[in-house]
Amino acid sequence: FIHHLKMRSLFNNQLNMVDLNKLNTTHTNIPKIKEGRLSAQFWAAYVPCDTQYKDAVRQTLEQIDVIHRMCHEYPEVFKFAASSQDILDAFEQNKTASLIGVEGGHSIDSSLGTLRTMYQLGVRYLTITHSCNTPWADNWLVDTGSEPEMHGGLSEFGKQVIWEMNRIGMLIDLSHVSEKVMNQVLDISKAPIIFSHSSAYSVCNHKRNVPDDVLMRVKEKRGIVMVNFYNDYVTCSPTANISDVADHFDHIKKVAGSSIIGFGGDYDGVTRVPEGLGDVSKYPDLVAELLRRKWSEDEIRDALGRNLLRVFSEVRDHLNGTKPDDIPIPLKEVQNPCRTDFGYQDKSSSTCIKSFYPLVLVLSLLNKLL
């Protein structure tokens, strides 16, 4: 299950100000987690696209910090997890395994060193883009025509990111990317991939969803598609119900089998959720609906966790002894006024950075005057 942590937007990460047992302004709190019988949970360390080229890395580190602090503050409920074994251990102890995913490639600021460091801090998946292009990958809005295609999918550095994630054993998440990126990653990744919160395009023609041909490729790659509950991706309209969500589960099973299905949720990351799935305590009702639709107990166990555990351990199988990739992104692909060029030898083109500054100063003076 994927959940956003609304700690920044509600409390500016001041966890001490809030009691997660009593919090009632979100889809998620401790009583709801217990009622929903959540045995494992990916918390999304998400920062908005507005932070790109500015303080995305700092803000992401703060979200990683708040997830660790939450596990520390409520040790009887949450157990931090970074491997399949950790998830099983938490299950044995009757705690909710808490994993970290970083939702958006802008969070690594085009740096493989930052990617590796986030892995060291416990991050186990990276969503290649959020709803904005990065200097190395295109996002889903490109497919709607509302944003220009910049890289024809992945740039050369984008491919380096994918291979480095394979090398260190980090899950590659393709929710939010363009269709070209989906297919290119499926072409080049040596390990299974995930869609952490996307539904079926054939059921609701929204570009955030996964087309049937890609579902088939996910199956070939032994990956997983975790169904999103956001109404707009479930029914392509503002309203939806539990049965509409189950239709996505049925469709994905029909096209590619139950081995690629998971529960995405996206609670607290979205504004509208289906009737009957109002918060995380309602997951068992969706399971009941799938049972009513003649899903076998085995298929449901797969969707509830076994598929993800399989992907998680198979991603680890692709670790190899090769050296870390330390070739940086070309300077010209990341130049902006907020980035210095220390370490780059070829600075012939960095004069354009300097020329930005007078403009920035004039604009900030104008802002002050206005």
TrEMBL record:
UniProt GO MF annotations: beta-lactamase activity; metal ion binding; metallodipeptidase activity
Name of a matching Pfam family: Peptidase_M19
Catalytic reactions on record: L-cystine-bis-glycine + 2 H2O = L-cystine + 2 glycine; a beta-lactam + H2O = a substituted beta-amino acid; glycyldehydrophenylalanine + H2O = 2,3-didehydrophenylalanine + glycine; an L-aminoacyl-L-amino acid + H2O = 2 an L-alpha-amino acid
Keywords: Cell membrane, Dipeptidase, Disulfide bond, Glycoprotein, GPI-anchor, Hydrolase, Lipid metabolism, Lipoprotein, Membrane, Metal-binding, Metalloprotease, Protease, Signal, Zinc
Any GO CC annotation of this UniProt entry: side of membrane
Leading EC class: hydrolase
Topology in the lipid bilayer: Lipid-anchor; GPI-anchor
Primary location recorded for the protein, binned into one broad class: membrane
GO terms for biological process, alphabetical: lipid metabolic process; proteolysis
Keyword field contains Metal-binding: yes
Location(s), subcellular: Apical cell membrane; Membrane
E.C. numbers: 3.4.13.19
Self-association and partners: Homodimer; disulfide-linked.
Primary role: Independently of its dipeptidase activity, acts as an adhesion receptor for neutrophil recruitment from bloodstream into inflamed lungs and liver.
Family stated for the protein in its record: Belongs to the metallo-dependent hydrolases superfamily. Peptidase M19 family.
Protein's recorded name: Dipeptidase
